[in-house]
Amino acid sequence: MSKAASDTLEKVSGEFEAEVLAGLEAGRSETLAKIEAVRKETAEAVAKILETGEKQAESVKRQIIGAAELDARNAQLRSLERAVNEAFELATRQVSSESGPSQEKALTSLIQEGVDVIGSRAKLKCATKDRRAVSSAIRKFGSKAKLSLDDEEIDTMGGVVLTTPDGSVRFDNTFEARLERMRPTLRKEVATILTGAP
């Protein structure tokens, strides 16, 4: 082979090698760029997934805490309501077991409230156990009021029901009725006493 052919072959071989190496380098650079782009996309996707997961975890945590706080508050309210009801029952039993002068004084006060509401002419009804004390209380009113004790008894722990002679107005001043009228205020007071809150 001649020197010229050998030089030409070497030159063509060198150019081919340079082209192949340049192509390989370009492919390598392109591949590295693609790998870097995929790495960035993956990192961004992972970061987004983690952020979403953290937000969801925080949301679930807030829901769990909120539900637990609500359950605790409801349990506290149920306990408080039971305690308030027990206090009402105890007070009602104590009031209904009164007898003698204190019972007569209480009934006189209840009758006076009724007279103030419906007027000085009224029929009174009471429980059988209170008839003697109510009769005595009626006598204390004397001529200031025209009150009469009805023969019909009522089922109550204590107190009286007053009606106008024609029956058009009725004022229930039994212990149970008074308790129901005062229940919201008393509930608040008893709850304050039981919880120690101002």
Strand share of the residues? Answer: 5-15%
Poorly predicted regions: none
Give the averaged pLDDT, no decimals: 85
Helix content: over 70%
Describe the structure.
The chain is an alpha+beta fold. It has 4 helices and 4 strands; from the N terminus they run ααβαβββα. The protein has 2 domains: 97 residues; 97 residues, 2-Layer Sandwich (hypothetical protein PF0899 fold), CATH 3.30.2320.30. The protein has a 4-stranded mixed sheet. Strand 3 and strand 4 form a beta hairpin. Helix 1 packs across helix 4 and helix 2 packs across helix 3. The longest helix is centred in the N-terminal third of the chain and has 94 residues. The radius of gyration is 47 Å and the shape is rod-shaped. The mean pLDDT is 85.
Summarize it.
The protein is of the alpha+beta class and 198 residues long. It is built from four helices and four strands, in the order ααβαβββα. It starts with a helix and ends with a helix.
Give a topology summary.
Blueprint: H1 3-96, H2 101-118, E1 121-126, H3 131-141, E2 146-149, E3 159-163, E4 170-174, H4 175-195
Parallel strand pairs: 1-2
Antiparallel strand pairs: 1-3, 3-4
Key phrases:
alpha+beta, four-stranded mixed β-sheet
